[in-house]
User: Which sequence fits this backbone?
């Protein structure tokens, strides 16, 4: 096959990726879009196998093992565990790019031209740190590691030194094309990935996963430069753009610059004081029966879910409750904060799994427009995203973060296990407000009780 | 076609593939920004997993690297690269499909709008 035809087929693959992403602009077309992108990938893989001399034993073994692992992970994952799975997949993508660049280095060193060796170094560095960083994110989300930030004195200096070491070794490799600095640099990049993610707290994971997603794309694009393949460059650039857009959206939704998320070790409790200590007011509690009456006779109800919903796996019982209310003629909406959960869109996926129609899922602006006309708002497992201190208290560490203004609803009910502070370690004045009722329970158990009470109203 | 030839002639030869790569990368980034800003927040998780599967395109490099001759170390790296990239591609597209299937469910016939 001529190189022209091969290039055009790769172009076709790249176009399929763009069409696939374009069709993600609406839930109706999204699934077929994903299929188009997957077919594009298949085409690109087949044409590569046809046109290049490959080692078939290695290829078949690798494809079979990889496909089996990928398929099992994809089929078995719970929707609540989606953030850690995406983190793991990011990690594999970064690893693959780093390994390809490593193999290309071995092939021709020390005779690479300048462009190639520079992109090899970039691909290995970014791919390797994406790999280990993603698996630390995985471990934190999966609960293998504690989610809270891990900090130690001089942390920034250590990270800075390692980063400088990677850059220095990279320059050495580019100039001398020596194997020794190449491998040491690769190992340092692996270490850097670990050190870079450990000080980032659990609730900042949406930003980190999006950023690592961008990195895995960039690593693929760098690998594309190494092997002069435009399908890799286009695919990598698309993913890089996607990850960067999502991380910047998440940062905006927390009103914190990216540097603060990455280096701020936010959530260590520095700004907050002990849970429930500073405000100290009285809270008003409610019972399942009282709440059931309020809900059943409401006109408009809004549910504001947070990570606690995912932890308690309460999405299905919540759906039963809202269906029941809808059958009674109550209008139900869901207010979704962009950083609710542990990855962008996490809550939407959970609720879609529980069959909630996506028309009922409102974004921040629409939800805030509806809240003043809402009779009862149910806050389930969310905390910082509904904290009025972010709006009212200029001294609060989360001041300026856009929130769901649940205190504007006529009645605000917070389902929560205890009065403990949220991720940010900040007390929540919402709990002590006049119009707020606390319902102390595990999300799943509590909603179940409310559900059975509603069915008897 | 003529345009490229003129460029090539003025440059005294063919265009460096690296430069073409940079052109492609920058244009593709702009396309990416345009397309992805139109994805609604509801679909941000499938966007991440789906774009993640696309970053598995590095599998092309992995497959080609298995063909590097007389270099066992490079082939070992290539094998693990194929495995990792395939996990990324197969797992990524499958899990995205699983999620999007849930989003496609029709509205309930007996809705409580009234």
Assistant:
């Amino acid at each position: 096959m001529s190189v022209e035809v091969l290039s055009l087929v790769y172009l076709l693959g790249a176009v399929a990726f763009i069409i696939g992403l374009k069709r993600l602009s609406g839930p109706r077309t999204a699934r077929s879009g994903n299929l188009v992108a997957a077919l594009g990938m298949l085409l690109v893989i087949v044409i590569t196998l046809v046109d290049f001399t490959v080692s078939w034993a290695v290829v078949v073994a690798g494809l079979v093992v990889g496909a089996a692992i990928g398929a099992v992970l994809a089929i078995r994952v719970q929707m609540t565990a989606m953030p850690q799975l995406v983190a793991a997949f990011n990690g594999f993508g970064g690893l693959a790019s780093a390994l390809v660049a490593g193999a290309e280095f071995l092939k021709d060193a020390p005779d690479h031209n300048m462009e190639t060796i520079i992109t090899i170094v970039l691909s290995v560095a970014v791919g390797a740190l994406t790999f280990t960083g993603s698996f630390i994110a995985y471990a934190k989300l999966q609960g293998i590691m504690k989610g809270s930030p891990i900090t130690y004195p001089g942390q920034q200096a250590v990270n800075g030194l390692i980063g400088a070491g990677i850059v220095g070794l990279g320059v050495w490799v580019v100039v001398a094309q020596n194997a020794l600095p190449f491998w040491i640099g690769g190992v340092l990049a692996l270490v850097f990935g670990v050190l870079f993610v450990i000080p980032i707290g659990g609730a900042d994971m949406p930003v980190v996963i999006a950023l690592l997603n961008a990195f895995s794309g960039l690593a693929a694009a760098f690998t594309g430069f190494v092997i002069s393949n435009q399908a890799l460059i286009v695919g990598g650039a698309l993913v890089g753009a996607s990850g960067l857009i999502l991380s910047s959206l998440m940062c905006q939704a927390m009103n914190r610059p990216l540097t603060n998320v990455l280096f701020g070790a936010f959530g260590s409790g520095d700004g907050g004081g002990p849970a429930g200590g500073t405000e100290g007011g009285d809270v008003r509690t409610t019972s399942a029966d009282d709440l059931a009456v309020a809900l059943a006779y409401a006109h408009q109800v809004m549910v504001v879910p947070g990570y606690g919903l995912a932890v308690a796996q309460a999405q299905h019982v919540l759906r039963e409750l809202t269906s029941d209310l809808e059958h009674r003629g109550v209008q139900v909406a869901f207010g979704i904060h962009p950083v609710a959960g542990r990855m962008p869109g996490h809550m939407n996926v959970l609720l879609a799994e529980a069959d909630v129609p996506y028309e009922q899922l409102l974004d921040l602006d629409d939800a805030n427009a509806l809240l003043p006309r809402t009779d009862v708002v149910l806050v389930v497992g969310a905390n910082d995203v509904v904290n009025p201190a972010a709006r009212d208290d200029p001294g609060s560490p989360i001041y300026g973060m856009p929130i769901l203004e649940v205190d504007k609803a006529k009645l605000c009910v917070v389902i929560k296990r205890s009065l403990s502070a949220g991720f940010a370690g900040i007390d929540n004045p919402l709990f002590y407000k006049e119009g707020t009722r606390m319902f102390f329970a595990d999300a799943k158990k509590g909603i179940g009780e409310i559900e059975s009470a509603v069915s008897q109203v | 076609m003529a345009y490229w030839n003129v460029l090539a002639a003025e440059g005294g030869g063919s265009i460096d593939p690296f430069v073409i790569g940079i052109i492609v990368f920058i244009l593709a980034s702009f396309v990416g920004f345009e397309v992805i800003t139109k994805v609604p927040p509801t679909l941000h998780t499938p966007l991440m997993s789906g774009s993640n599967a696309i970053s598995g395109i590095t599998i092309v490099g992995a497959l080609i690297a298995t063909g590097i001759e007389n270099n066992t170390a490079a082939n070992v790296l290539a094998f693990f690269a194929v495995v990792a990239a395939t996990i990324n591609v197969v797992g990524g597209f499958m899990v995205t499909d699983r999620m999007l299937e849930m989003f496609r469910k029709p509205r309930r016939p007996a809705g409580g709008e009234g």
Observations:
- Confidence is low (pLDDT under 50) at residues 109-114 of chain B.
- Chain B touches chain A through 87 residues (CB under 8 Å).
